[in-house]
Amino acid sequence: LAIRVIVDTVPDCYHALGVVHDLWLPIPGRFDDYIAKPKPNMYQSLHTKVIGPRQQPLEVQIRTWEMHRTADFGIAAHWQYKEGATPQDRFEQRMRMLRQQLFEWQADGKDSAEFLRSVVESLFNDQVFAFTPKGDVIDLVAGSTPVDFAYRVHTDVGNTCVGAKVNGRIVPLNYRLKNGDIVEIITRPNARPSRDWLNFVKTPHARSKIKQYFRRQAHAENVARGKELLEREAERLGAEPKVVLHAEALEEVARQLNLPNAEEVYAAVGDGRYSAQAVLNRLLPRMPLQPSLLATGKVMESEARLSVDGIDNVMIRRAKCCSPLPGDDIIGYTSRGRGITLHRRSCINVQNYLLKEPERLVAVRWEEKQGACYAVSLHIEAADRTGLLSDISTVFGESRTNITAIRTISRPDGTAHIDMTVEVRSVSHLHSLMDRVRRISDVLDIRRTGSLGEAA
Length: 456
Prior knowledge:
Elements: E1 2-7, H1 10-23, E2 25-33, E3 46-51, E4 57-64, H2 65-72, H3 87-108, H4 112-123, E5 127-131, E6 137-141, H5 146-153, H6 155-159, E7 161-166, E8 169-171, E9 183-187, H7 204-236, H8 241-244, H9 247-256, H10 262-270, H11 276-280, E10 290-295, E11 304-308, E12 311-318, E13 330-335, E14 339-344, H12 348-356, E15 361-366, E16 374-383, H13 388-398, E17 403-410, E18 415-424, H14 427-438, E19 443-449
Parallel strand pairs: 1-4, 10-15, 12-14
Antiparallel strand pairs: 2-3, 3-4, 5-6, 7-8, 7-9, 11-12, 13-14, 13-15, 16-18, 16-19, 17-18
């Protein structure tokens, strides 16, 4: 399957190469001379692939002892192929392989916790070696499947995988590969990954790429939704969307909101981080509203009488449809006999009020009060697994955040949908919690909702 020949001198390397090519038929185009042309990291060796015993591809590496020491302590180190290796030998082999893959895992990982988990999982797992039809050796974690193999070859191969052949026989995608298997991946251009794959893939690389695909899908949907909301809001205000939402203006708004580019502005509106009106307020003069009021103290879930900007006995309450928080872009609606109801500006009810009763809307400033907490609902989508709910609960427990309601549903597609209500101090506190939940392994999406399970 794969052998390494170590000799004393450079001439001996080429002599050994001749012996190998006399014994077995070379595979055209599969010879590399890294002795004559060393790699930038000073790696030197002769690489050749031949049709070996039993007509199986065989990889042969030929080098001197000095070249071997250089490779053994550099990032180009390969596995040693030995019989009867001791546990210490196997541990050292894993360490050498990790040096090759660290950069790749670091690029795939979203954060340090995920990166560390990838390293630990691969370090303390046995390996399996499979081959492409052309004879390339693919090293994988023991128990890996054709899906792991496909993503190891290339991300696009994994994303468009629809089936696999192992040793010429069609196998299911959750088939466990064995040493020496020759794997052919069947792809289709319009195919897409399945969330079910997360239930059986073994390699951190494949798991990361599958999650990345679905994150990008959600991002694209949020961009489209945000663009539609901004264009609709611009038209409602009597502005021409193409004039207002030009690239330079949106780039400036992105800088103001600490977002990387204009596309992320659309995405932020689409996923509810900012309302369409909040973004347009930075592009157009503000809409004429009633004099601003300052809301102080804790705004209760039920009606509560507070002193607002020096005016006593004004009833202030949070709207249940969008559950605003201190730090949100908010607006007040003056209702008959019920005081002022606070809404997020992106709330659908506010859009209706702007069309039908704009005179009842009042700009309100809401300052966070020490010790005050407010209920807010969240929706989480994740790959279903044992311990998922415990991991999520730990995030809220460590931040001393109370969970007041929770509902979970396991879907046939292998995902879990979780709706929960938690008590937070402000929108910044909420965003911090959501960021920590996103870093949990297998969490695909988390978003803020109105009442339990309803999008806000």
